[in-house]
Amino acid sequence: MRVNARKMLKKLLASPANARFDDVRRLAEAFGFRLARVTGSHHLFIHPEIVELLNLQEVGGQAKAYQVRQLLRLVERHNLRLGGDA
Fewest Cβ atoms closer than 10 Å to its Cβ: which of 13, 31, 44, 86? Predict the structure, then answer.
């Protein structure tokens, strides 16, 4: 799973548009986010070390690009690592 997460991270860093929702969801989970609740199309994720919520929406199987960028900013700002990395 980590290899796939690394590939997805590289792809999203290059271009956050046209990302499959399921791939972005799996990547968020690989960084330690957990699904807290779903309200309509809003999937709200929490992280034990971050106060902010992560909101991801699925639209036609795709994740919204601005929400993918928000995930990437949270990863960078909080120096999150993929599960299993030291």
Answer: 86
